[in-house]
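Tutorial, part two.
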Amino acid sequence: MVWTLLSGSSASALLAPAAVTAVIAYLLGCFNGSVIVSKYILRDDVRTHGSGNAGLTNFYRCFGGPLTAVVILTDMLKAILAVLFGAWAARHFLLNDPMIATLGKYWAGLFCLLGHIFPCMFHFKGGKGILSGGAMALIIDWRVALVVWGTFFLLAALTKYVSLGSICAGISFPLISLYVYRDPVIVLAALLIGTMVVWQHRGNIRRLLSGTESKFKLHHKSGEGRP
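Running the prediction step on this input gives:
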């Protein structure tokens, strides 16, 4: 158990690396690919178009094009770097134990997602976290990634609702984490991450229930969202 491994350490020994990891992961999360590309390359903030969200789906619907790949790369890379740093910091400053490294991944992932959703450099208005969360899953454990990504793609492909796939992927994250690790501290971190993703989709949930949610299409309206 993670808590048993950590209980032998002093509070000060735990606090410093945890705080540094949280700050670095949060700042990495603040580099929102959708906002950076739309605001500084296209000169047309994505948050002023469509759903007003700074996520990949809204960016694609508003702008489309090859710059979508830049958004994907940015949001995935920052999450990967944050999770890898969390694992390294946990091993280097706490204990060289696989479970501690896993906790470091979840801890860093939690704060990276906070940065993505509430970026301090973009007036705390970011994305919904599904792409960054999926990237975290890839680094955390292949079994976690298989369930999270599989849930997303299966539901999105069958229903054409990206939001439904995202919501169910968020729900599956703590469930598969519980199955794989069975550790209350890790599961708590996973639950917080999954809850944030689902909460960010609360508007989509309302539209899904009312039958007004838009389905995903492999095109965007001509000229929509462009300066």
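Residues 220-227 have pLDDT under 50 and may be disordered. In part three we will examine how such features are distributed along the chain.
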